[in-house]
Design brief:
Elements: H1 22-41, E1 45-50, H2 53-61, E2 65-67, E3 73-76, E4 79-86, E5 89-95, H3 100-113, E6 116-124, E7 126-127, E8 137-139, E9 142-145, E10 149-152, E11 164-167, E12 184-187, E13 190-192, E14 203-205, E15 207-209, H4 212-219, E16 242-244, E17 247-250, H5 258-268, E18 270-274, E19 293-298
The protein binds 2-acetamido-2-deoxy-beta-D-glucopyranose (5 copies).
GO molecular function: catalytic activity
Organism: Gossypium raimondii
Keywords: Signal
Length: about 300
């Protein structure tokens, strides 16, 4: 954050009250830790993450997830981590909830607490590429966080380190009519901390890469036949396709805006937009730098994207 360029008027202090139930909390924590130890004895697992209830319902309705009969779940920090198998592979599954805060919190917790080989995150996303359409599946190779902004008045000077710039006045209708007081936006890189880097030193990161090994596995799925119809009366006009290796964007923005969709495609070359892929930034507490999450998105998310 270019702090010197801002006019800091407020100091925001967030205080958290510590509840007076410390002893009950610590009893629960010990119970949870014992359960986690128990679960990890049966690991390693593949981590599975969805975002919203609709995605979870579809996943459960597919019948592919068979819950562990003896130890079906643990509730941690308000989320339910479920254990079971999918086609004979041991999995731990969680629904994280919408937005980047939820995605990162749930993924970091999964990565830190459970014996995980890798994470598959699947759900719906918005389409920003005209060659893709509703029902297509994308498995991106790189993901950019496009919601980390510095936002200036029309006269403000953007930081030269910004990776892209959005001039809001460029979108005036009719074109060039007067000053647009919304000014302009600079896209900043992520401050990325990782187990592979030096402790307490952030790297600047725009593109989070998906593990090459997992992408190679995913590329075997290309060409697979996807369903075209929900039922006898509801069909897509074309058979959907699965594409591996495009770029994706993520931010806390639900996008239903054709102009911004085109901006993202032109500036970042991204083919999808979602609100939870920030969890790809979570790296394992492990020496294996290849362990990272991968995301499957089915397009589009509700009416996201035009
Ligand atoms: C848009 O999607 C198509 C696949 O449908 C892909 O071939 C093309 O490379 C994508 N464009 C960009 C800029 O990624
Ligand atoms: C931008 O600069 C001009 C010329 O100095 C000034 O008249 C105008 O009020 C400024 N606009 C904003 C939004 O600060
Ligand atoms: C700018 O917009 C105003 C208000 O809509 C309109 O009256 C004016 O004719 C426009 N000027 C130009 C140059 O388009
Ligand atoms: C991600 O992959 C690209 C291209 O394969 C590479 O140039 C870049 O250095 C990688 N980034 C990181 C952070 O590993
Ligand atoms: C097909 O599915 C849609 C959406 O779920 C539903 O509204 C419609 O009634 C279904 N039609 C038939 C014939 O089952």
């Amino acid at each position: 954050m270019a702090a010197t360029q801002l006019k800091p008027c407020l100091v925001l202090l967030l205080t958290f009250s510590v509840l007076a139930f410390a002893s009950a909390i610590s009893r629960n924590r010990i119970k949870s830790l014992n359960q986690i130890r128990e679960v990890n004895r049966k690991g390693p697992y593949i981590g599975l993450i969805t975002v919203i209830a609709t995605e979870e319902d579809a996943f459960f309705a597919s019948g592919s997830f068979k819950p562990d009969p003896k130890f079906p779940f643990i509730d941690l920090s308000g989320r339910r981590f479920r254990f079971g198998v999918v086609r004979g592979r041991k999995v731990v599954y969680v629904r994280c909830g919408e937005g980047m805060t939820n995605a990162v919190a749930a993924t970091q917790q999964m990565a830190d607490l459970f014996d995980i080989k890798g994470i598959i995150h699947f759900g719906i996303a918005g389409n920003t590429n005209n060659s893709m359409s509703i029902g297509d599946v994308t498995i991106p190779n790189q993901i950019a966080h496009t919601g980390l902004w510095e936002w200036f008045n029309t006269n403000g000077t953007l930081d030269s380190a910004d990776v892209a710039q959005l001039e809001i006045g460029d979108y005036n209708v009719p074109k060039g009519n007067g000053t647009n007081l919304l000014g302009h936006i600079g896209y900043m890189e992520e401050e990325y901390y990782s187990v592979a880097g030096e402790p307490n030193v952030a790297e600047s990161l725009l593109w989070a890469n998906i593990s090459l090994q997992w992408l190679q596995l995913a590329s075997n799925l290309e060409g697979m036949k996807l369903e075209q119809c929900v039922n006898s009366s509801l069909c897509l006009t074309e058979r959907p396709k699965l594409v591996v290796g495009l770029r994706a964007s993520t931010s806390n923005i639900f996008l239903d805006n054709a102009a911004y969709r085109d901006f993202l495609f032109q500036k970042f070359g991204v083919s999808s937009a979602d609100m939870e892929s920030a969890d790809k930034l979570v790296k394992w507490v492990s020496s294996d730098s290849n362990k990272r999450a991968i995301r499957f998105s089915r397009k589009p998310r509700r009416r996201q994207c035009c």
